[in-house]
Specification:
This protein has 295 residues and is an alpha+beta fold. The protein has two domains: 117 residues, Aminotransferase class 4, branched-chain amino acid transferase, N-terminal domain (D-amino Acid Aminotransferase, Chain A, domain 1), CATH 3.30.470.10; 159 residues, Alpha-Beta Barrel (D-amino Acid Aminotransferase, Chain A, domain 2). Helices cover 29% and strands 26% of the residues. The strands form two sheets. Strands 7, 8, 9, 10, 11, 12, 13, 14 and 15 form a nine-stranded mixed β-sheet that branches. A six-stranded antiparallel β-sheet has the order 2-1-6-5-3-4. A hairpin with a 5-residue loop joins strand 10 and strand 11. Bound molecules: 4'-deoxy-4'-aminopyridoxal-5'-phosphate. The site of 4'-deoxy-4'-aminopyridoxal-5'-phosphate has 13 residues, from helix 6 and strand 13.
Length: 295
């Protein structure tokens, strides 16, 4: 069965899924993306991701390519056509196609593409697959709250991590604090046992949808989160560390810049949050919709 992508109103074989060379996403990264996990045929945290898509687009004054209701239908149709049960949907909206000019062109409509990926979401295996993290300077612009496809600093950060045999890079801002991972939010359990993550104020990090879900779950479970910035030096001495993101979920971190975190295994609080998140992502149907059966 060929893999199918969605490109500007059409479902096309993956190999033929393309946009024009003068698409502004290609030339300027004038473009927004979202990634949503599909677990057992259900889109995890769908509404949160669509909320953020709309917000990112409005910050760049790019029009929503279609009403949210239609986006939901396209996602489901793409999942159905690919017979996907577990994996993710990547979607991207660009300002559109026009002759190269920095200014916003008049009279164009946004380009809209979606691709699906396969994945497995085995919680126990992921808890065992403890990750290594390295720190790198944060080379990004000041609007890190916008999920733009201008990802070159993150590409370099992730490659720096890979070059050292690590999974993720935690980026350090100009004040010496960890901002976030190259594609995830960063968390520690500090020396006093407090769960700590950086605040999202001042647009200095991306407001992760998974991070938001964890905040809500912690509130419900009366687990206190301290929102404050922390340094790499503090992280080296943390009792636990993990990252959060839509497809890497809650990823336990056992080593940062060669410093062992806790006993090097998935910590207790990390494991608990992971279980809470999975129950939520798998079982909490988003509002206004039925469970989607991919068959
Ligand atoms: N920070 C950055 C820089 C990211 O790229 C991501 C992943 N999109 C996240 C945080 C986590 O966000 P989410 O939980 O919405 O996937």
């Amino acid at each position: 069965m060929p893999r199918i992508a969605y490109v500007n109103g059409r479902y096309v074989p993956h190999a033929q899924a393309s946009v024009h060379v003068e698409d502004r996403g290609f030339q300027f990264a004038d473009s927004i993306y979202e990634v949503i996990a599909l677990m057992n045929g259900r889109l995890a945290d769908e509404e949160g991701h669509l909320d953020r898509l709309e917000r990112s687009l409005s910050e760049l004054r790019i029009a929503l390519p279609m009403p949210r209701k239609s986006i939901r239908i396209v996602m489901r149709e793409l999942v159905r056509r690919n017979r996907l049960k577990n994996g993710s949907i990547y979607m991207q909206v660009t300002r559109g196609q026009a002759q190269r000019d920095f200014k916003f062109p008049k009279g164009i409509s946004p380009s809209f593409v979606m691709i699906v990926y396969n994945a497995t979401y085995d919680t126990e295996a992921r808890k065992k697959a403890v990750k290594k993290v390295v720190t790198v300077p944060d080379l990004r612009w000041k609007r890190r709250d916008i999920k733009s496809t201008a990802l070159l600093p993150q590409v370099l950060a992730k490659q720096a991590a890979a070059d050292k045999g690590a999974y993720e890079a935690w980026m350090i801002d100009d004040d010496g604090y960890i901002s976030e991972g190259s594609s995830s939010n960063a968390w520690i359990v500090d020396g006093k046992g407090n769960l700590v993550t950086r605040p999202t104020a001042n647009n200095r990090i991306l407001k992760g949808v998974t991070r938001n879900a964890l905040q809500a779950l912690c509130k419900r479970e009366k687990i206190k989160i301290i929102e404050r910035a922390f340094t790499a030096k503090e992280a080296y001495k943390a009792k636990e560390a993990f990252t959060s993101s839509a497809t890497a979920l809650i990823a336990p971190v056992g080593e940062i810049d060669g410093h062992k975190i806790g006993n090097g295994k998935c910590g207790k609080i990390t494991a608990k949050l992971f279980d809470l998140y999975m129950d939520y992502a798998r079982d909490n149907p988003p509002p206004q919709q039925e469970r989607w059966n991919p068959k």
